[in-house]
Design a protein that fits this description.
Shape: globular
Order of helices and strands: HHHH
Number of helices: 4
Distance between the termini: 26 Å
Structural class: mainly alpha
């Protein structure tokens, strides 16, 4: 296995919490199912992560669609409505403090 994405040792990232809260692989890794060679599609910078943590509604999807990399909400308004409902129902409250990701 070749590791494509690597975060510094001082960054804590848990895939399970993201998957269990409806964040798809495509949000961080891009459309890897359409890549001939897997490459960095997103920056994975601190700003990138904080943008998602500040606005998770735009990135949440039904849990049964997390691994469906081609899934898209019917419209931006539908995404916002679904994401807002998922955030409420699943108690999504991503950390925005340093200690949330830096250990």
């Amino acid at each position: 296995m070749v590791q494509i994405h690597e975060v510094p040792d001082f960054v804590y990232f848990n895939h399970a919490i993201h998957i269990n809260r409806g964040v798809s692989c495509v949000e961080c890794h891009g459309q890897i199912n359409q890549m001939d060679v897997v490459a960095h599609a997103k920056s994975l910078s601190m700003g990138f992560c904080l943008d998602c943590h500040r606005n998770p509604e735009a990135h949440l999807r039904p849990r049964d669609q997390v691994t469906n990399l081609d899934w898209k909400a019917p419209s931006p308004d539908a995404q916002l409505a679904m994401g807002t409902q998922f955030k409420h129902d699943w108690k999504v409250n991503p950390p925005q403090s340093c200690s949330g990701c830096h250990r």
